[in-house]
Amino acid sequence: MNALVFFILALYSVFSISIIEASKIESGFSIDLIHRDSAMSPYYNPSMSTLDLLKNADSRSSSRLKRFSLSLLSNENESPESFIIPNNGDFLIRIYIGTPPVERFAIVDTGSDLTWVQCSPCASCFHQDTPLYVSSKSSTFTKVPCHSQSCTLLPPNQHACGKSQQCLYSLFYGDKSFTLGELVFDSISFGSNVTIPKSMFGCGYYNNFTADTSGKPVGIVGLGAGPLSLISQLGDSIGRKFSYCLLPFNSKSASKLKFGNQAIIKGDSVVSTPLLMNSSQHFLYQLNLQGITIGQNTLQTGRTDGNIVIDSGTTLTLLEQPFFDNFLTSMKQTIGIESVQNVPKPFHYCFPSQPNFKFPSTILHFNGANITLTPLNLFLLVENYLLCLTVVPSHIQGFSILGNLAHVNFQVEYDLERKILSFAASDCTDLNLS
User: Fold this and answer.
1) Is 429 helix (H, G, I), strand (E, B) or coil?
2) Catalytic status, residue 109
3) Is 266-433 CATH 3.30.720.120?
4) Which of 37, 58, 109, 415 is catalytic?
5) Mean pLDDT value across residues 227-243
6) In 128, 190, 203, 371, which residue has its Cα 20 to 30 A from 196's Cα atom?
């Protein structure tokens, strides 16, 4: 058996242990979730059109698709380094590291486990616009010992002991990106909301991030279900729950990422479906999509396993073929409007916007939950007043991603304790202002 798989299976015996000393956060807390293309983001470029932004998003979506699919479909003889591919994500959060705290923007990733940033003194680092994290300037910094339980939460072939018995880590990505350094403890806070006094993260001294050369990213905050993620580190203090309510594309405001009691969604409209976490890739959030109803026509996937990953870092929804082909045919027939010629990439169906057009009812059928999508979840208005379908084909057999446009105006709660994902249709603009 692959050593990584064996290690992760064995890890479930200690998975419930919180690996930081965080005080009980009774009421929960929330932080701004900043879309990378919004005016609040350091990536913001007002000269880019909606179509330009979506082309970039499609490139990021393709990267994530390859990363996730290879992770899930790889055979046990492959090394983990051969199939991990990073991307630069769709959402950022502000974090404050060390004492005194230093503000940074970090990429939020529900498909990643380890949180890491670039650190000084850096032997080889990619360009970033902000200063590197300097551990010697933080009074709350400590090293993670190499023989500690915290260090052994990394797979055996991704950690080692340094000369001072510190815990060294290495992550090599499929696109030649990498990060190498040491695991450390330090204080991480989210503004005035909450402080994690002893958070564990990777301090990278040798880094290459080919997915983004803009100088904006400083690292990644992992929100996956793995034992090193921020969610697992907060553990019982937040009841292993988080949620978000994403604003529409091109919104001028920030969405909210909520933890603990604040993350709980209530009401008669809440529906839930099991989170199906693969034993060897448990940092991914998988669901089973049974089918999709468009108007009066229901398409069945014929699958009973976890055939779709819900991912906040992917913009578009990608459906495996031939299911996508059937979905597209049904959508075109139900709408009854011919597609324009020369459909702009990455789309496969666009038609001229028409006043008072009535969109067909579209329902996603998950195990135990039916989700009725709105036009905002399925179509975007792009150049020349074209409405384009934001569902595209997955080029990986047997693998799909429910992208974040499909999450817009839904409260989405991840309950890792009960292994349940819940949805509730909402007006996220009102909720994020409250």
Assistant:
1) helix
2) yes
3) no
4) 109
5) 89
6) 128
